[in-house]
Amino acid sequence: MQGRSDDQRELLDAESVAGHLLKSDSVFRFLATHRGELFPEEMFADLFPSRRGRPSVLTEVMASVITLQALHGLSDNETVDAVTFDLRWKAACGLPITAPAFHSTTLTYWRRRLAASARPNRIFEAVKSVVAATAVLAGKTRRALDSTVLDDAVATQDTVTQLIAAIRRVRREVPAAAAVIEQHCTAHDYDNPGKPAIAWNDKDARDLLIDALVGDAHRLLGHLPEQDLGPRAAEAVALLALVAGQDVEPVEGSDGTDGHWRIAQKVAPDRVISTVDPDARHAHKTVHRRQDGFKAHLAIEPDTGIITDCTLTKAGGSDNHEAVIGLALLDDEPSPVRVLGDSAYGTGATRAALAEAKHTAIIKPIPLRAPIPGGFTTDDFTIDFEARTVTCPANHTLPIPPSGGVGFKTRCRSCPLASQCTTAVTGRKLTLSEYEPLQRAARSQARDPNGKPSTANTGPWSNGPSPGLPATTAKSATAASPATTTGCITAAPRSTYVDSSPWA
């Protein structure tokens, strides 16, 4: 049942004893004074439908703790220590000086309850409403976009483990699936969650097992009776269909219809890495660093460090790209802003969308790579967008076709500049998109008179961590969400973007 607050303060109430020591403009002071208004009991009533059982920790206390935890980037154990020993935390939460803290698992319990509710982001929304009501961002016209990968706690599963787990899940969730498995699936004893006992150092044995397990999955899917499935059963069937196809391909010489399979020689672009958490994905923040988990996307006001909006997505997939999600984070801005970001946000479509919304893009251009080191890039070609012509450094002019693909072909064979332009037998080719004018203008603005990126005011471009964003490990997508509370103030921001004077 939901715990109820008591207006009667205790003798050693931390706010009464030491509240005068709190800075007037601090979050601690604000919560000490307004937590009851910010997080009223009725705001969390749906989390406790039953009136039976032991009273919960007070909702205003837990909401304040979750907010402060996100603000300071603390682990659950560190948060409990802060509630126990830090008078500022006690005053902010309305606790007596001598009050012990709750167990660290209480935070996990609350996150799970919030995640499973109809309004999982209610604490975000409450803090964001305060930011809007206090006009703390009035006159602040810059928003920095960034993202970071949150590690998932589940282990990455190989194909064999995923197939066995998915078949067992269908057996557990789908009516009549157990009978189908008993009759048609013979590759493994599906009462056993582990891997079969085979010679794992024998490639032929591994190939036979993969072939048999994929065959079992297909036979199970093919023999399930037609029936209306609930959400859990439908999800189990869909997951089995996915894992049965994402890592395999027909064996060599097969036309794909004879039912023989092998491990594919490539990785699926949106591969499910675990049946325990099907939303977890591989992610590459750099070429040399791979992580498994989710991606947190943030919009930050860089002067105050206030996170104005945030969301959590799968780590992979075009729909979850920084440029796509970053635009959505600006939807609630009441007026145009200057948008700061690294080259991940520098796509032509993003620049066009920002311009349409009247925002100003201060975004690092996507770097150009010359076919020959030190040679000519696309920017060394003169483009007349009105006449739809392109002229190469050797002064050869060609029309731009509707497709945007321009090939100089035989003109490159006798060209004295060919060694600086291309090594292709068919000559230099350009592919110009509809956003080429925007991209070219952005690259031009980013260069100072010496042809180097401008670093006036805030230093060079960097792909460092988000300003003030703590490193966080996500137990799951929903569990990780409170680590990026909307409207919270991060540590003193360390800008990773350029606000060069030509763009201001």
TrEMBL record:
Coiled coil: none annotated. InterPro entries: IS1182_transpos (IPR047629), Transposase_11 (IPR002559), Transposase_InsH_N (IPR008490). GO terms for biological process: DNA transposition. Residues 470-486 have a biased composition (Low complexity). Residues 278-365 form the Transposase IS4-like domain. Residues 41-113 form the Transposase InsH N-terminal domain. Residues 438-504 are annotated as: Disordered. GO terms for molecular function: DNA binding; transposase activity. Residues 452-465 have a biased composition (Polar residues). This is Transposase. It comes from Mycolicibacterium agri (Mycobacterium agri).
